[in-house]
Design a protein that fits this description.
With 256 residues, the chain is an alpha/beta fold. The protein has nine helices and twelve strands. The chain has a domain of 133 residues: Rossmann fold, CATH 3.40.50. The strands form three sheets. It has a six-stranded mixed β-sheet with strand order 6-7-8-3-9-10, with helices on both faces. The termini are far apart.
């Protein structure tokens, strides 16, 4: 489990996170919501061990995450950032192979990379120049890289996937496919932490939602209890009407 205890992050006299207490369990899909600048990405980076807290601490399996080496962390968690810039003409397959762990324990890395590309509907892109791909295609290749990282690092302990706005460049079909993939990974024991802006997608797929604003967690819980007109008004400053999805019965926020 990943635990954050009283975590604050301060950079250049600006408080990005303030007194955050949070936990992510293996097998759980947690989606974080909130307006721009709420601290969502900062929380993700802190949980992943990429940012050091100014106060408080983050534990991975009851050990300070700062005590894990980068290779050790790489076997335990994969991170998809909002944007990844590559200035060299790598093929999509070469980009995915960047996720292969130094000590491969999950099987043949090339085969697993091929499977990862197929998993995100990008098998046909394997030999394409990554720089020639569309934004959505690049996003899917980066998701495949993260999958390869996890699949070639199994055996080190429970694993976690950190996704920072992974649907931002995807079309509707691939947005839904990605969240279904996240659900399948969670069902297999992977803890998934995802930053989204889409309340509908979050409510339909998440086990738990975390609503952030001004660097704080202002509400946390099941979608049915967290997606309310009051929460939407207080955090997003818009009026909404909440109604159940006709099939799943999960809440849908209709903005007035």
């Amino acid at each position: 489990m990943i635990h954050a205890f009283a975590v604050s992050v301060i950079r250049h006299d600006k408080t990005l996170l303030e007194q955050i207490n949070f936990s992510l369990s293996p097998g759980e899909l947690v989606v974080t919501l909130g307006p721009n600048g709420a601290g969502k990405s900062t929380l993700l980076k802190t949980l992943a061990g990429e940012l050091s807290p100014s106060r408080g601490h983050v534990l991975l399996d009851d050990e300070p995450i700062s005590q894990f080496s980068l290779p050790q962390l790489s076997r335990r968690r994969a991170v998809l950032s909002q944007s990844v810039h590559l200035d060299f003409p790598f093929s999509a397959m070469e980009v995915v192979l960047m996720g292969v762990q130094r000590t491969v324990s999950g099987g043949d890395p090339f085969r697993l990379s091929q499977e990862a590309l197929k998993e995100v509907d990008a098998g046909h892109l394997a030999q394409r120049n990554y720089q020639d791909l569309s934004g959505g295609e690049r996003q899917r290749v980066q998701i495949a890289r993260a999958l390869t990282q996890l699949w070639t690092g199994v055996g080190a302990g429970p694993q976690y996937l950190m996704l920072d706005e992974p649907t931002s460049a995807l079309d509707l079909k691939h947005q839904c496919a990605l969240l279904k993939l996240a659900r399948r990974l969670a069902a297999k024991g992977v803890g998934v932490f995802c930053v989204l802006h889409d309340l509908h997608l979050a409510a339909q797929y998440a086990d738990r939602l975390v609503l952030m604003n001004h660097g704080r967690i202002v509400a946390e819980g099941a979608p049915e209890t967290l997606i309310t007109s009051q929460n939407v008004r207080e955090v997003y400053q818009v009026e909404s009407r909440i109604m159940p999805h006709p099939i799943t019965q999960r809440p849908m926020a209709m903005i007035d």
